[in-house]
Structures are given as structure tokens and as C-alpha cells.
């Protein structure tokens, strides 16, 4: 039995949920995946098209534009006649749940990809923003009853999101994010040397963070400890790959600490495997996550990893694969980085174990197979 699944997602820009779904669906063996992205942003579209995946680009110009999106989706639903609808990210979730009124016979799958209602989301927010978040939560809470089942990318998120939205555990299946290990295996020593030369990093101690530039990802913590790192390692440099709404705040802190030549914001990057291959330490100080795809990629690359001890990160890295520090503890973060730079050979076993663990837990072929079997099992009920 071959299935047809229609994926509704906000955009096809390169971010955790988007990239993960793109990689998973292109490894399906018995399922036809069709994507609809509601809003502008289609970085991943050429990749999907090259793999034979059909993509509908609605490119709704408004921030929400639910009515316009639903009008176009009705035509797509009728034309494609999918066996399942799978929505991902808040606005697409709301639209897909509204569509359930018109297509009640098509099962709707939801995605838990972030710890959306953790207290950190409300920290330092104005009263208006807190009210806006609360209203979004209420809309999510009541409309979630229209979803037939959810796929969560971690046990931690299953518990947190399930409890927040009062979803029975029996309606939530955990399937980790997958990554294609071959992307990291094929990087050669020459690739790494060439990238270092291209970026002017020969002879540097390279600290790397790959993440969206948003407050909860914790990049400010790394920047704040950089002056002390540089006192011990003047040739250290911090590369941050990613883009986001927190960029201006990060740039301000870089200027404040006079780190213009020591912290480089790379923006969106398409050469992450190559970047990981030149990193002396991969640093992931996040305060809240889903299941961090960037952390999985660092593991597959065999990096020395320093990560915060939040549940989502610990579930990802497992035991004896990384250097862990208490989230938000700048002193511990500094010490972990210095330890890794001072004694890299001491962590060879950690690097090997990280790579082995990542391939066993997050192999894209295994994850894609789990998605397909989960869909099939639900439809048989």
C-alpha cells in the first residue's frame, strides 16, 4: 500500500523542522510526499523538486492570511486527495485545523517540534507580548482537539507539549529527527583546509555555533565568555552560522565587548558539514529546544561538543558523548570551552562515541521508515 501525505508548513527556509522534514520525506520508500508552504521562503524547494517531490508555493503575503490560504488549500486537497495531512509549525497548524471542518474524513497529523510554552518564552517580554503568547496558546490548546495524532521529535517535548495542551500520551508518537550521515562522511581533509583558507582561519582555534539567532538559543552566553577565552587563547575565533530576529542584539553585544574581529556572524550557510569539520569545539548553550538538529549534525561530524544540560539536549547526546554545563552558567561554560581547547586529545573517545550514537539513533533511513510505519499503523486502526 502506497500512501499520499500532504505536508503543510509555514515556509521551506533552512531551519530545523523544515530541513528535517525535507530529508525524511525524500527517503520514503512507500509514501508520496507533497509539500505546501504557506508563506514566502523556499530555500529547500529546489532540493525537494530535485528528489521528485511536488511543492505548492502559496506565498501568502500577509502575516497570517488564513482565509486566502484555506481557499487555495481547498483546491489542492480536492486535486491531490491525500490519505493524510501533516502540519508543522504554529500558523500552518492553525490553518490545517481549520481545514478539518471541510475535510473531516482526512486524518490530521500534528507536529511537536519545540518546547513552545516553556517559561523562557515569556522572559523579558512586555505585557502586550505576554498577552499575545497567551492568546496563541489558547488557540493552540482548543484547536488541538481536531488533530488525530501527533508526532513529537523527542520524549522531552512529548511530555512538555502534551502536558501544556492536555493531549493524552497515547495520541503522541516520538520519532527523532534524522540526518543523512553520508553528508558528513564525504568531507575530506582538503575540503577542511580549503574552507579555512577561504575564511582566513588558518592557525585559529575555531569555536562554532549553528543555530537560529533567537534569544533562547543562548549565543549571547558564548559571546559574553569570549573575552576570557581570548585571554588564554588569543587565536580563538567564534563562528555563528544562522540568521534570526536576535541578530541586532547579538551585534550590539559584539560591539560592546570589542569582539568585531573575534566573532563572525556567517548568516545562513549551505556548507554546514564543512564548517563542522574545521571546528575545534561545537558549542550549543540553548535554553529551550525541540530535538536539536544542529547538535545531531555535530555528533555525526565527530566534533568535541559543549552543550547545556536542558532535557532536550541531554536526550539527544545521551551518555559519554559531550561536555555538559548547567544552562545559563557562564563560569561553567567558560571552563568547559577552555578544557576542550587545552586538552583536545582527552576527548577523542567522546567524539567517537558521539558519532556512533548519532548514526545509531538518528540515521535518516531508520527515521524515514518509522514515519512511514507510524502513518500506516494509524490508518489501519
Automatic annotation (TrEMBL):
SUPFAM superfamilies: UDP-Glycosyltransferase/glycogen phosphorylase. Signal peptide: none annotated. Coiled coil: none annotated. The keyword ATP-binding does not apply. Keywords: Transferase. Residues 196-357 form the Glycosyl transferase family domain. Gene3D superfamilies: Glycogen Phosphorylase B. Residues 39-183 form the Glycosyltransferase subfamily 4-like N-terminal domain. The keyword Oxidoreductase does not apply. This is Glycosyltransferase. It comes from Antarcticibacterium flavum.
